[in-house]
Design brief:
Distance between the termini: 36 Å
Largest sheet: 2 strands, parallel
Shape: elongated
Strand order of the largest sheet: 1-2
Number of helices: 2
Helix content: 25-40%
Structural class: alpha+beta
Number of strands: 2
Strand content: 5-15%
Radius of gyration: 19 Å
Amino acid sequence: MQRLTSTNASRRARLWLAAANGATLSRPDIAPIDSPELPMMVQFEGLTDAEQQTALAAFPGGRRFVLAS
């Protein structure tokens, strides 16, 4: 299937259609700008659980991430 419009154009079209029909689209949960950042769930492929913990601990800014497993 060939896509004729960009994903942004498709989103704008969905927003416009929803607004024209008096509806709103659901939005993903986003933390307010003045609140703490929500942790992001990550998983490293091909590493054991212990290796994933070590990699996450060595990563700069690793406190913002939580292992998914």
